[in-house]
Amino acid sequence: MKEGLYADLLETWGATLKRLQVTQFPDAGICGGILCPSCSRIHGRTMDAMYPFLHLAKRTKDSSYVDAAERIFRWARHVARPDGSWVGETNHGWKGITVFSVIQLAHCLKFHGDILEPKTYSLWQEALRAAADYLAESMTIGTGNINYPITSAASFALAGEVLENARYTDKAREFAHKAMEYLTPNHLIFGEGAPQRGRTPKGCRAVDLGYNVEESLTGLVLYALAAGDDEVREQVVESMRSHLEFMLPDGAWDNSWGTRNFKWTYWGSRTSDGCQAAYALLQKDVPEFGRAAYQNALLLRECTHGGFLYGGPDYHAHGEIPCIHHTLFHAKALATILDYGADVPDEAVPLPREAEYGTKYYPEIDTYLVAKGDWRGTVTGYDWEYAPASHASGGALSMLWHSDWGPVVSASLTRYEMIEENNMQLPIADDHACLTPRLVLKGRYQSILDTAAKIAHEIGEQEEYFCVEGHLVDEEHRAPESGPVPFSVKYHFGKSAVKVEFFCADPDVRCVFPVVCRGAMLRKESSQAYRVERGNKTLHIQADLPLDAMPEVFNLVPGFAAVPFEARLQQDRPLVLELSTQQ
After folding, report:
1. What's the predicted TM-score (pTM) here?
2. 190-214 pLDDT, tens per residue?
3. Residues 59-87, buried b or exposed e (16+ Cβ, 10 A)?
4. Residues 6 or more apart from 349 whose CB is under 8 A from it?
5. Contact 44, 93 (CB under 8 A)
6. 333 CB contacts (<8 Å, ≥6 apart)?
7. Which of these, 170, 156, 47, lies nearest to 99 by C-alpha position?
8. Three-class DSSP category at 46
9. β-strand pairing of 575-580 with 560-568
10. Looking at residue 3, what is its pLDDT?
11. CA distances from 455 to 141, 450, 458 (A)
12. How would DSSP label each residue in 391-442?
């Protein structure tokens, strides 16, 4: 049975979470917490493991999981507040996280209350009521990033159902219908930035794929199912279709451009719940939703080592220690779909990005998706800056994927910074570097920092073309003291190859073009050509100027190692770089 993948992953992750639970020290604030190997601490949202533990207790008939869940609840008093709220970390006072505590407490009681002692049930019920009351008094549609108020719709709907309280049910409908105002004309959810309803100079909105597919859409789906709200459900289905355009054929989420992509992993987002709780639950509406949930779960399995879900495809090989956040939250998502009874997916149903459709443009994020031959690409000029030098802009090639090779190019944070210190991790080595292809002057001025760059798209007989015009700027969008330095980039997407032309008249400008080649053998064929071999597959990299392969680098966002190829530009001609997989 195909749900076996979900159940097997959940059992694997659940055993790891239980193994890391502190039981040998009776002290409050320590006993019952789950230790994080990477961060060497107990994260505040350890409480979210209660729900998958209870699911596993019933599934495996192992009562030790009930004990583990009860220990977590006692530990969680450490992050509870007298007003009924919960904070996300022991050293951070953000209470918006209460929305997720309400959902998981409601799921514990709704699906597994029958295995709890009456006293425990009553205690958890009162905690749920207090938390829901806190949200009812404090949460508004304008609170924080949009994922919190949107997910409140699910919190209130489930609390209303479990506690049989019409006040919460009414609040749920209010939040869900207000959330429908946060859809772009292309049905993407916006509001992942401040101000929620703001626009950039290009007219773009604050959109983040990771938070949308792993939290906001999940919240709306859970609301629609609990409330039986067909009006919201229909709009959510359309939004899910639109977001699904950004899933790569291997189940990865291409959030190379998102506002909060400092928490992007190739398979999703670091501290959110996974796409399964949205897509698997509505696969009766749209069959490809089930395929998406399953394909993504296969990728989660591929990134699981020693019982841990690692934060990206190359974390384990690079020696990174896994943060427990990934395992913790995605276990909760799998418990959700198993309890709701997700159907067996049809693996023959194609994902949208498997089709060769040419180009699709999303003006709300100034981003193009390309599907030509076996190549899938993303070109972005998105100018919403959640933090300086975070996601790529400047007409960057932020994703290049091939059906035989997988990811060839993947953008990363331009400068890795722990924007959310409790939700990110430090790299272990000094080889941590930007993976986004770019032009660089004096190590400071870069093409991918130019949020004002303009992208033009043309369709040829055999190729899709993109022409980028911009200026090299620093993180504060300033030109060099000597004056503006214009650049241009041209992308040619053909069926058999992708060609990129870089031009800048400044003789000191370098082109840096990192190529993802994990587990591959690099062979230099000439001063201008390289072969990258992995098994029986070969990636060719050919330039018309001298090209150097630099030592491998790594970036935690989104978790890839890559070899940067570098070339010095010339004043009177462009650098032409071609990538192909022909033998």
Report:
1. 0.97
2. 999 999 999 999 999 999 999 999 9
3. beebeebbbbbbbbbebbebbbeeebbbb
4. 287, 288, 290, 291
5. no
6. 214, 218, 273, 274, 275, 276, 277
7. 156
8. helix
9. unpaired
10. 66
11. 34, 12, 10
12. S--TTEEEEEEETTTEEEEE---SS---SSGGGS---SSTTB---S-EEEET
Q: Which two tokens stand for residue 247?
A: 């899933």
* Per-residue confidence (pLDDT) for residue 480, from 0 to 100: 97
- Check residue 348 and give its pLDDT: 87
Which pLDDT belongs to residue 461? 85
Residues of the chain falling short of pLDDT 70 = 1-3, 583
Contact indicator for 312, 263 with CB cutoff of 8 Å: no
| Residue whose token pair is 């959310």 | 420
d(CA 532, CA 439): 23
Q: What are phi and psi of 379, to 5 degrees?
A: -120, 125
Closest C-alpha to 436, from 397, 492, 475, 487: 397
Tell me which residue has tokens 């100034």: 366
For residues 295 and 2, give the distance between their C-alpha atoms in angstroms, rounded to a whole number. 11
Quick one: pLDDT at residue 430?
87
Q: Which residue has the tokens 């209303």?
A: 160
Q: Which two tokens stand for residue 355?
A: 């089709």
CA dist., res. 500 & res. 513, Å (int):
10
Spatial CB neighbours of 73, under 8 Å, sequence gap ≥ 6: 32, 47, 50, 120, 123, 124, 127
Which helix (H) or strand (E) segment is 66 a member of? helix 64-75
Q: Find the helix or strand (DSSP H, E) in which 467 lies.
A: strand 464-471
Tally the residues of the chain: 583
Other Cβ atoms closer than 10 A to 208 = 34
